[in-house]
Amino acid sequence: MINNFAKKLLRECSHANSVAISGHKNPDYDCLCASLAMQEILSQNKIKADILVDKPLDLSVGKVVRENNFLTTAQKDYDVIICVDTAELKLVPNEIVAKKDKAITFNIDHHKDNSMYLKYNYVKGGESSACEVVFNLFEKYFKLNQKLATFFYIGIYSDTGGFIYSNVKSSTFEVLTKLAKTGIKMDEIVQENFCSISKEGFEITKRAYNSVKFFGNGQIAVSTLRSNDFVETKASYSEGKNIVSVIQSINGVKVAISISEHEKGVFHVSLRTTCDGVDVSLIAKKFNGGGHTRASGLKMVGEYEKILSAILNQTKNVLGLLK
After folding, report:
1. pTM of the model
2. Which of 14, 38, 59, 225 is deepest in the core (most CB within 10 A)?
3. How many whole angstroms separate alpha carbon 178 and alpha carbon 192?
4. Band (238; pLDDT cuts 50, 70, 90)
5. Nearest residue to 50 (alpha-carbon basis) of 88, 15, 96
6. CB within 8 A of 253, min separation 6: which ones?
7. Measured distance CA(135)–CA(149) in Å, rounded
8. How far apart are CA 132 and CA 25, in angstroms?
9. What residue spans define the domains of the chain?
10. Helix, strand, coil shares, percent, the chain, to 5
């Protein structure tokens, strides 16, 4: 199946006049790096491809990723469209959705709940990352240089929380071993992309810490950043998102929730857990979100107090706290 899918994709791309690659809206590192890796693989096979995103990349994104050319507006009527790291059509940028019916479409993903929304679908649910899926799917069709290895490493590192999440398997480390053999400086990559923080990011992080409240006898921790927090600190939205990974490590916390108001009345919610037997994707799906067992997200529009109450009720239900 792997060879058939990979061959089909490369064959269709080689015959196309134009190719587009895209991930989900508000792309994370795994999404961006899987897109960049796919673009480089196609380039090695003498195929040019554009990468489309729903909006300009945030300045907090590391230089390795940011210095590449991402488009926010489609430049052509694409013959082939490739979507990576995206479970549902509603998560695909509108520029891609508008052109998909006239193109041959491919879907490459690692989300278990992928809806198989395109013509050709290759989904390895449970893999560590989209980057790992792309690596294994096309390994026979690229030369692993430092450029590609860096993309793969950033994506895998990001989606595994630095290789500590339960989605890490022995096969993940087999891929990492191959990446290391290219001579990439893994410590420098991590420092630049995951450890440095701007002053604005520091200020928004302080506010996120100070906002944390506990519910359900301490089993649920919630941090909240309102729109005025971003305005007053001049921080980007992505600079406030890492708090959820910190509060999930607090003793006794089974579900960590980060609520971020990106614009008035529009809330982005991140959910994390490190507990066996807890599936935060069940919380996200209740509100038309999605993701993984240990890490999921959703978007809600409305009044903060009502949104918080609804999320807490569903979280308590998943934890078995409601009688």
Report:
1. 0.87
2. 38
3. 22
4. confident
5. 96
6. 214, 218, 219, 220, 221, 247
7. 9
8. 20
9. 2-194, 199-319
10. 45, 20, 40
Tell me the pLDDT band of 59, cut-offs 50, 70 and 90. Answer: low
In angstroms, the CA 276 to CA 294 distance is 9
Q: Which two tokens stand for residue 194?
A: 């995951």
**Domain 2-194 is in which class?**
alpha beta
139 burial class (0-12, 13-18, 19+ CB within 10 angstroms)? Answer: middle
Element (H, E) at 104: strand 104-109
Distance CA 207, CA 279 (A): 28
Q: Give start and end residues of each alpha helix (H) in the chain.
A: 2-15, 29-44, 63-66, 94-97, 130-138, 146-159, 170-180, 186-190, 199-210, 227-233, 243-247, 281-286, 304-319
Under DSSP, the state recorded for 58 is P
Residue 241 clears pLDDT 80, i.e. is over it: no
CATH number, span 199-319 = 3.10.310.30
Is the pLDDT reported for residue 189 higher than 90? yes
Neighbours of 273 (CB within 10 A): 25
Residue in the block written with tokens 């037997």: 277
Q: Does residue 261 contact residue 304 with C-beta atoms inside 8 Å?
A: yes
Beta-strand pair 295-301/266-272? antiparallel
Q: Is-same-fold flag (2-194; 199-319)?
A: no
- DSSP assignment of 119-145: SEEEE-TT-S-HHHHHHHHHGGGS---
